[in-house]
């Protein structure tokens, strides 16, 4: 088991990361300060001063940065769909072994 | 007469949720004889509020996820008796807050609901809930100990299942008790508030089974199993610090009647697998 997998499935095959709603984000950067996994990157010189740089660093099912967000600008995929997808990936892996 | 609180509301004047926090505080104060602590003044000087904060149960009202009032309570080392987060409640009741800073019809409707909830909770407290926990836990748990600097992480060696989100389940028959691991409580440090899952609610595997909160963060409890909540550890409502003392024993979170454990089990880890993940996380992230 390595950090490149989650529940036995390759992390890059699991779609789980925050999406920033730029119409709501006020660039307070609370999410950046909170997340220890370098999911976000601050780009001071650009119009979008915050981006999701490393979506695969995001811990699957974790929505903790979203709970720090005052303007509620962060959203995440549906958990049930994600669980289903992980099960499918594992099944495919078993079959190909 | 309902319970009289010391109310510490958010005072966010640049957000509608902040204005709503203020209105909720005013109404509860009017109906219960509670006293309001002004967060702005409290930050400057605590002399005026020390007495009321020490004598009355504290009700924290946060407007949004920034949790200014909750963080202030942590800074002042206050024990939180009850809590409202306006933004979360607006989602829960599906009442959208407007874009003006003035309170409109929707906001006042949400205000009525939240004030009534606080007054009603008081009545329910008195009635007492007769839901009891039933999962028989081992009399003594054998722990693996992993130490990093001055921090000691315990992990039960037998009988517990874990998910990669650092939550555990102990299964007996068709029931499970769930909780968080030492990694969670140590990362959060002093836990000051427990939001339990609702008894009778159905939770999918990896769904949210309540939350715990410290000055650092809000941690969503990611349920390792699917099932219906049959009991919560109501001691944590008064003593959330039990989770820091021991999250596997008196700091357990809830119990569920399982709906599909055979399938859930495929995505759970046993001690040998989880201990490696926990050690890696401790080495990489714990500070």
Overview of this protein structure:
The complex is a heterodimer of chains A (97) and B (287). By secondary structure, chain A is of the alpha+beta class. In chain A, 24% of the residues lie in helices and 14% in strands. Chain A contains two helices and six strands. The two termini of chain A are 17 Å apart. Chain B is α+β, with helices and mostly antiparallel strands. Chain B is built from eleven helices and 15 strands. Chain B has helices at 16-32, 39-44, 47-55, 68-75, 86-92, 105-127, 182-188, 235-238, 242-245, 261-265, 271-285; strands at 6-9, 35-36, 58-62, 80-85, 143-148, 151-156, 160-162, 167-172, 175-180, 191-195, 202-203, 208-214, 218-222, 227-232, 254-258. In chain B, the strands form four sheets. Chain B has a six-stranded antiparallel beta sheet with strand order 7-8-9-15-14-11. The radius of gyration of chain B is 20 Å and the shape is globular. Chain A binds chain B through residues 1, 3, 6-7, 28, 30, 34, 36, 59-64, 66-72, 79-80, 82-83, 86-87, 90, and chain B through 15, 64-67, 87, 163-165, 204-207, 211, 217-220, 222, 266-267, 273, 276-277, 280, 285.
């Amino acid at each position: 088991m390595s950090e490149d997998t989650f529940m036995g499935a390759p992390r890059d095959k699991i779609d789980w990361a925050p999406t920033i709603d730029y119409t709501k984000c006020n660039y307070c950067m609370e999410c950046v300060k909170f997340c220890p996994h370098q999911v976000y990157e601050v780009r001071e010189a650009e119009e979008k001063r915050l981006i999701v740089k490393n979506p695969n660093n995001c811990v699957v099912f974790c929505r903790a940065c979203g709970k720090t967000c005052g303007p509620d600008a962060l959203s995440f995929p549906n958990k049930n769909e994600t669980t289903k997808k992980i099960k499918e990936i594992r099944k495919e892996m078993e079959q190909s072994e | 007469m309902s319970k009289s609180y010391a109310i510490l509301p958010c005072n966010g004047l640049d957000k509608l949720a902040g204005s709503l926090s203020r209105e909720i505080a005013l109404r509860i104060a009017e109906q219960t004889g509670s006293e309001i602590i002004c967060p702005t003044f409290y930050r400057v000087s605590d002399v005026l509020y020390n007495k009321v904060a020490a004598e009355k149960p504290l009700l924290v009202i946060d407007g949004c996820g920034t949790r200014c009032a909750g963080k202030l309570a942590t800074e002042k080392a206050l024990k939180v008796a009850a809590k409202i987060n306006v933004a979360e409640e607006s989602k829960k009741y599906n009442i959208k807050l407007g874009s003006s800073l003035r309170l409109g019809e929707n906001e006042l409707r949400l205000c009525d609901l939240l004030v009534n909830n606080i007054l009603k909770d008081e009545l329910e407290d008195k009635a007492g809930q007769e839901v009891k926990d039933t999962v028989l836990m081992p009399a003594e748990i054998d722990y693996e100990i992993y130490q990093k600097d001055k921090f000691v992480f315990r992990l039960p060696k037998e009988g517990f299942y874990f998910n990669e989100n650092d939550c555990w389940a102990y299964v007996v028959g068709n029931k499970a008790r769930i909780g968080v691991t030492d990694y969670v409580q140590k990362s959060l440090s002093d836990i000051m508030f427990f939001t339990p899952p609702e008894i009778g609610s159905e939770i999918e595997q990896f769904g949210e089974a309540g939350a715990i909160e410290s000055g650092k963060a809000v941690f969503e409890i990611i349920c390792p199993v699917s099932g219906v909540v049959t009991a919560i550890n109501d001691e944590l409502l008064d003593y959330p610090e039990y989770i820091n003392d021991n999250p596997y024993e008196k700091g357990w979170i809830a119990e569920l009647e399982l709906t599909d454990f055979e399938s859930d089990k495929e995505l759970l880890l046993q001690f040998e697998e989880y201990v490696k993940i926990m050690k890696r996380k401790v080495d990489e992230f714990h500070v």
